[in-house]
Design a protein that fits this description.
Layout: H1 2-37, H2 43-66, H3 75-78, H4 82-114, H5 127-130, H6 132-149, H7 153-156
Length: 159
């Protein structure tokens, strides 16, 4: 049940990241069109692209960490015997969980503080751009807690 819910939420996060990436690409295309075809640069396209890119990257990274698919150099861990290998994986998961909790805590603080600031070009609070940090941190933390508390779950979430 938990594996199914995590896979479904992974699809939701990745789908949102894909849509945001498409918006990012459309915004960049509009920026090129305005700048080189109309010869009238539009400042909103650059800012929109930046915010969409930030959101898509953080959402996809949260799924990547949850599936244990982030960049790593496994040469040390793979050459350990099974007992120490499991201990090292637990240590790595705990370190990642600590980082995810820092993202959740301080990302929330920054997002809250930035809600009063307006974006220079777009009529939205800048805190919306920062809101993805605690969201991604919370999602990473859920995945990592499930992985730590239910070791058999790791294989069920593999791509």
């Amino acid at each position: 049940m938990i594996a199914w819910a995590l896979r479904a939420s992974d699809r939701l996060f990745l789908g949102a990241a894909a849509l945001l990436s498409a918006g990012y690409l459309l915004s960049i295309a509009a920026q090129v069109f305005y700048r080189y075809v109309l010869e009238a640069p539009s400042p909103w396209t650059e800012e929109m692209a930046r915010y969409l890119f930030i959101w898509s990257a953080f959402l996809a990274a949260a799924v990547s960490v949850g599936r244990n698919d982030q960049f790593s150099v496994p040469v040390l861990v793979d050459n350990l015997p099974p007992g120490p290998r499991r201990a090292m994986q637990i240590f790595i998961d705990l370190a990642q969980l600590g980082f995810a909790l820092v993202m959740l805590r301080y990302g929330s603080v920054i997002a809250d503080r930035m809600m009063m600031a307006r974006s220079p070009v777009l009529p939205i609070p800048q805190g919306l751009a920062y809101m993805v940090i605690p969201i991604a941190g919370a999602y990473m933390a859920v995945h990592l807690l499930c992985r730590l508390l239910m070791p058999g779950l790791r294989s069920k979430l593999a791509w």
